[in-house]
Specification:
alpha/beta
Length: 457
Amino acid sequence: MKQNIKILVIEDDDSSREALLILLKSIGFTVKGCSSGQDGLGVLSGEPFDIVITDLFLPDLNGIDILTRVKASSPRTEVILVTGYGSAETAVQAMKKGAYDYITKPLNIEELRIIIDKALEKGQLVSENVYLKKQLRDKYEFANIIGNSQAMQQLFSRMKRIIKTDSTVLILGESGTGKELVAKAIHFNGNRKDKPFIAVNCSAIPENLLESELFGHVKGAFTGAVKEKVGKFEAANYGTIFLDEIGTLPMHLQTKLLRVLQEQELERVGSNKQIKLDVRVVSATNVNLEEEVARGNFREDLFYRLNVIPILIPPLRERIEDILPLTKHFLDKNCRSMQRPIMHIDKEALEALEAYPWNGNVRELENIIERIVALTEGDVITLRDLPANIVKSYVEGTPTSVTPAGIDMVAAINEIEKRMIGEALQLAGGVKARAAVMLNINRTTLVEKMRRLGIPL
């Protein structure tokens, strides 16, 4: 609302200043006026203003001095200069130093109103941009990468050292381990956090389009190139480019990428003009690039260029202690998004999750938790709420035959009973009488067994 917008007017001519203050106040702005540059700077030092409107020439200071000091102390405050016809050229020079715009005397209030509205719109966009960048930085803080295991703590330690450099990074890990999340954390916690982060999945772009996507093209470079295109590397200039699945890059593009990394410059497709770059390259792969080099599928010199600082993300099955905090995180996230009370997981269901091999890693766990939250009515997740393949893996992992080392017969029998009762209840839609018939036992016996085995009634 306009009454929340504060404007300071610095004008030495009393009648002009008062007229402008009355006009701005009638529009709905909160305004204050000063007759000299020093008075204006004094007011600015004590309270913030959204816009400063100042005469270019004042008895004690000129508008350029005021502009310089305002921008030094409050970069988001926009400065509009008021100038005589003969000094318009000076006002244009001032705009190059950060002034938003200028208006010539005699003042046209409608023109000034338009300039103020545009200045406020710019300020709002800048504030939104700052807010969104902060949201990104908060989202990709190291604390938001879940992992209490020793392997993950070692990963965090290495990442904290990496963010202080601009070195090229190669992230190694199976699909679903969170390679892009790590790449974003490196970028948004580093020196380039306010610059672009551009992600490219090299395996998702058709080979005949990949060169143009990465390096851009000029108009007429090939059939269909009706206008010039900026490539991903140019879009990432001064920031970070993330090349995911780098192992799928065709050999001829590996050669061009190597040259870009060596020279820090590129040529668009169809052009011989060199474009200088300042880009940090973070790449990722789920294949063994050293083996690909040995097979002749990946350039050895490119591998060494990319592998300056390697980061290995361990698979989920090698950090079982992270399954509980990850599960809690995904439960909290999905329960909030689905607007339901926070769910919990019981001991047996957690043991089943921890016994599962998780070939899809963290991504698979996240998807399963989302499914459970969507389909489970209760607030406590039990073994029977888990997908059948996880339950089967867990049950089959329980020893049921006698070995020379012996067996816990009671525990084994309990597990068999739990599994059979769970399956019967699932087939019976939760109706105990029907499940008891399937198990060929009395309903009261079923209830007693459920109570003894800790199965929710």
